[in-house]
Amino acid sequence: MWWPLRSAVGAALVCAGLVVVAAWGWASGGDHSKLTHFFINVTIVVALQSFSGNSGILSFGHMALFGAGAYVAGILTLDPALKSTYLPSLPHFLQDANPRWWIALALAAAAGGALALLSGVPILRLDGASAVIAILALLLIADVVFGAWTGVTRGGAGLIGLPPEVTMTRALAFALAAVVVARVFKDSKTGLLLRASREDAFSAASVGVAVRAYRVRAWVLSGVIAGAAGALFAWWIGTISPTDFFLAPTFALIVMFIVGGKGTVAGAVVGAALVTLVQEQVRGYEDSSLHLGVITFHRLTGLTQLVLVLMILLVMYARPEGIVGREEPDEAIVRFLRGRTA
Asked: Which has the closest alpha carbon to 192: 54, 329, 325?
């Protein structure tokens, strides 16, 4: 009866860390854009963790759900005057639509959940590598749709001039909500049984666990969170195009997920923090030159991706379970205290 409250209290330690980061940003009085980006990254990685961390199926398709939310929010909140110029073939009800940001965000979250439901029912009937490949196919299909449906998405030209509806405070609020929801789901009956099926789905199904139904539940929840994160991202960056939701950001998302720790919500937050920090620090060196005797690199293009590769290799070699490991911080503290008492 009290387990949701216990789970929410357990998530409070991670939430407190996010609040401390935000407080530091407010106190510094500088540009909050990078911290806003960090909180958006936390939300999308937590979305991935709520599915892959519990089911054991690594998803390469979350950027499709993320992009669906971004495009829905972007189209809804784009200035009607710009819509008539950029997207003249939109239906009239979309041409004139200009809802409040929270309505657009709710619709973006619903779009992510709807896409997850439509794709999850057939995809999650598969197991293991087959499911991973099918989810990757979802990403490829979404990229084709985002790029070719020019009457709605404007294709490679991108949606330009999206309103800056997201602030650091709003991004923080949704990151905190995502952490609490993901932790409560993890500790719920669905989350526990889904994790029980992670190692051997056939054995779990043989004792009555509805593995596929639980996977779809986790996938839809993950899609809702990802859709909301996509809306925040669209408003933060101001301009979106299909490349924002394809292979490069998918790789960065997977690195965040694995580096922090696949099995914990806290691991998702730690992974998002480390990778976002590395991206912000290293990206500035990509325009630099490097002299190695007879060889000169005039531009270090791709340096950020190279550093992310090194990060994931180092973590997988030194700590395969991720930096946080298998236990949430509050669980590790309780176990330590019980050991001391014993």
From this structure: 54
Tell me what pLDDT residue 209 has.
Answer: 85
Q: How many CB atoms lie within 10 A of CB 122?
A: 9
User: Phi-psi region for residue 208, left (φ > 0), alpha (ψ -120 to 50) or beta?
Assistant: left
- CB 34 within 8 Å of CB 42: no
What string of DSSP letters covers 28-43?
A: HTS--HHHHHHHHHHH
What DSSP element (H or E) covers 292? strand 290-292
Evaluate whether residue 50 is within a structural domain. yes
Does this model's pTM top 0.90?
yes
Model pLDDT for residues 9-22, shown as the tens digit of each residue: 889 999 999 999 99
Say whether 159 sits in a helix, a strand or coil: strand
pLDDT of residue 202: 82
| pLDDT tens, residue by residue, 215-234 | 999 999 999 999 999 999 99
| 61: containing domain | 3-242
How far are the Cα atoms of 3, 207, 211, 212 from residue 202, in angstroms, in the given order? 28, 9, 9, 11
Q: Does a structural domain hold residue 342?
A: no
Residue 181, domain member (yes or no)? yes
Domain assignment present for 24:
yes
pLDDT band of 157, cuts 50, 70, 90 = very high
Q: How many domains does the chain have?
A: 1
